[in-house]
TrEMBL record:
This is ATP-dependent dethiobiotin synthetase BioD. The gene is bioD. Gene3D superfamilies: P-loop containing nucleotide triphosphate hydrolases. InterPro entries: DTB_synth_BioD, P-loop_NTPase. Pathway: Cofactor biosynthesis; biotin biosynthesis; biotin from 7,8-diaminononanoate: step 1/2. It comes from Desulfobotulus pelophilus. ATP binds at D16, I17, G18, K19, T20, F21, D49, E104, G105, A106, G107, P188, F189, V190. The lineage of its organism: Bacteria, Pseudomonadati, Thermodesulfobacteriota, Desulfobacteria, Desulfobacterales.
Length: 211
């Protein structure tokens, strides 16, 4: 099984890349706790609810967001539109006890939380290793290499890459060979989410290595 730390931060190479989907996999497969520190576009978007729907787990697996903003924007702009301000001191990592803890970011690794405050600053503040979610197709090499460089340059440990989407052997090999970051797992595209058992899919993905 791909080694996963007890507590980790799921970031990605972009928004809409599959962080919540991969979070749901990990929460289901590890019976973990889930925390989305900053949610924008709520309502209607709430990743916490999506993870609960996909996993079928009870409220006890979910910590409340530290910030929810209405506008579906970058957190710094969403906060500004509500006259609010995000500071690092606002964030305290919740205690998940003996359970795994999955923390999901918003967008990619350098999304701004405020002027001169970025998602990477939050990751370092929480002192968590990163699972970096990327797409599998054309374009992922550049996006992933840029994200890996941003994390490495800030001394943020990367637990591994999660390649999310249709299988692409060359890209999956290059992603790890050219970054030195382990490819933890390839998550396939699931056509019918209503029929998938996320815990089973987690074990299928994380216990059997495809490349
Ligand atoms: N492997 C997959 N199979 C099927 N659908 C997927 C898969 N990965 C992601 N999706 C779908 O793609 C959409 C975007 O995924 P997701 O919400 O996880 O992105 P995100 O990175 O969490 O976005 P945000 O930055 O807003 O948090 C969702 O509708 C999700 O269900
Ligand atoms: C609204 C969206 N679903 C995310 N929650 C926030 C994504 C911020 C992306 C900012 C950017 O990289 O341009
Ligand atoms: Mg999400």
């Amino acid at each position: 099984m791909a080694d996963l730390p007890r507590r980790f931060f799921i970031s990605g190479t972009d928004t809409d890349i599959g962080k919540t989907f991969v979070s749901a996999l990990c929460v289901a497969g590890l019976s973990a706790m889930y925390w989305k520190p900053v949610q924008t576009g709520f309502p209607p978007d709430r990743d916490r609810d999506t993870v609960q729907r996909l996993t079928g787990l009870g409220d006890g697996h979910f910590f409340p967001e530290r910030f929810c903003f209405t506008e579906p924007l970058s957190p710094h702009r969403a906060a500004e539109k509500e006259g609010r301000f995000i500071r690092l001191s606002d964030f305290v990592l919740p205690d998940s006890g003996s359970r795994h803890l999955v923390v999901e970011g918003a967008g990619g690794v350098l999304v701004p939380l405020a002027d001169d405050l970025y998602m990477t600053d939050l990751i370092r503040h929480l002192d968590l290793p990163v699972l970096l979610v990327c797409r599998t197709g054309l374009g992922t090499l550049n996006h992933t290499f840029l994200s890996v460089e941003a994390l490495k340059n800030r001394g943020i440990p990367i637990a591994g890459i999660v390649a999310n989407g249709p299988f692409h052997r060359d890209n999956l090999e290059d992603l790890t060979l050219m970054t030195g970051v382990p490819l933890l797992v390839h998550v396939p595209f699931v056509a019918n989410l209503s029929e998938v058992d996320m815990a089973v899919l987690f074990r299928t993905c994380f216990y059997s290595r495809q490349v």
